[in-house]
């Protein structure tokens, strides 16, 4: 059990892992033809994730609400799914967000 915990700490689950754990298939985000997968965009994410609800959930973050930013880009700027998440805002700002 200890080693499993250590492995998870060293390799935290990616967003895609959390989606799979909830029963979301690869096809849900990448389309039916996985030999030629489509690249998910904001519209793909908002099929399941409500942006207004996310903005409400993150309204108390220090500095600014990343889900209400006037120049908020695509969800995948921060939520990379197959790579560790990234605080895209930190490229220009000093907001200390914990991106999941």
TrEMBL record:
Q: What top-level branch of life does the organism fall under?
A: Bacteria
Checking SUPFAM superfamilies in the record gives:
Multiheme cytochromes (SSF48695)
Cofactor names from the entry are: heme c
Q: What is its main location?
A: other
> Record's InterPro entries?
Multihaem_cyt_sf (IPR036280), Tetrahaem_cytochrome (IPR012286)
**Residue span(s) of domain Tetrahaem cytochrome:** 19-94
Q: Does the keyword Metal-binding apply?
A: yes
Record's subcellular location = Cell envelope
Gene Ontology terms, cellular component aspect?
A: cell envelope
Pfam families membership:
Cytochrom_c3_2
| Keyword Heme assigned | yes
Any single GO molecular-function term of the entry would be: metal ion binding
User: Which UniProt keywords are present, listed alphabetically?
Assistant: Electron transport, Heme, Iron, Metal-binding, Transport
Stated name of the protein: Cytochrome c3
**Organism, scientific name:** Parasutterella muris
């Amino acid at each position: 059990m200890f080693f499993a915990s250590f492995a998870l700490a060293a390799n935290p689950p990616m967003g895609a892992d959390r989606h799979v754990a909830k029963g979301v298939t690869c096809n849900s985000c990448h389309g039916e033809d996985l030999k030629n997968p489509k690249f998910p965009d904001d519209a793909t994410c908002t099929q399941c994730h409500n942006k207004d609800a996310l903005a409400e959930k993150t309204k108390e973050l220090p500095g600014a609400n990343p889900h209400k930013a006037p120049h908020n880009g695509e969800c995948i700027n921060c939520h990379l799914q197959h790579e560790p998440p990234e605080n895209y805002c930190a490229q220009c700002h000093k907001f200390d967000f914990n991106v999941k």
